[in-house]
Amino acid sequence: MFPIFSAIIQQDPRHKDFEQQTLPHMEILYNYALRMTGNTEDAKDLLQETFLKAYRFWEKFEQGTNLRAWLFRIMKNTYINVYRKEAKEPDKVDYNDIENYYDLIRDQNSDDNDLQTKIFGQLLDDDVSTALESLPEEFRTVVILCDIEGLSYEEIAEFSQIPVGTVRSRLHRGRKLLYAKLYDYAKGRGFVK
Fold first, then answer.
1. 52-88 burial string, b = 16+ CB within 10 Å, else e?
2. Which residues contact 191 (CB under 8 A, 6 or more apart)?
3. What are phi and psi of 32, to 5 degrees?
4. What's the CA gap between 103 and 56, in Å, rounded?
């Protein structure tokens, strides 16, 4: 788990129950955080913030209900709050940071040894990723959660706080939009004749 978080919760008697129930969902939450943020460090921060909030409000979680959907909802709300905060702040650029930018990038070589980037970076082709990112948010979220993360319609409905019928409708429309955007891509690679 996270070092700071682990040190805090190990002193609390509730921590074993919390850990046993939530840790199996960490990987899927991280994958979704990575898709939302587009950055591994931001995804880790969002994941840690999600688990901290979940732990803080653990006694409010209704045992026997869908824990994964509850965690996803916490993550989504946390991301929205962070996004709103960042959107209100104007972009800041420090002149000292960009003064020698050209020299910096010219001298760097692009040796990408990040294992995670190598493994996950090739999962979706650039054209597919671009098409997916171009979908409106409500369609993109449903398509990612269903087709990439493998969540059920009911889990997506609970996470998004919408009826199951709306999930099916958005998934259908999102897939149609992706089909239209990726038709030439699929044809060029021999998937469509």
1. bebbeebeebeeeebbbbbbbbbbbebbeeeeeeeee
2. none
3. -70, -40
4. 47
Tokens of 12: 């609390």
| Same-domain check for residues 1 and 87 | yes
| pTM of this structure | 0.54
pLDDT tens for residues 49-101? 999 999 988 888 888 888 998 999 999 889 888 876 776 666 555 555 554 55
What is the CATH classification number for the domain harbouring 14? Answer: 1.10.1740.10
Q: How many domains does the chain have?
A: 2
CATH of the domain at 172: 1.10.10.10
CB atoms within 10 A of CB 156: 25
How far is the C-alpha of 171 from the C-alpha of 41, rounded, in Å? 29
- How many Å apart are CA 167 and CA 185, to the nearest integer? 26
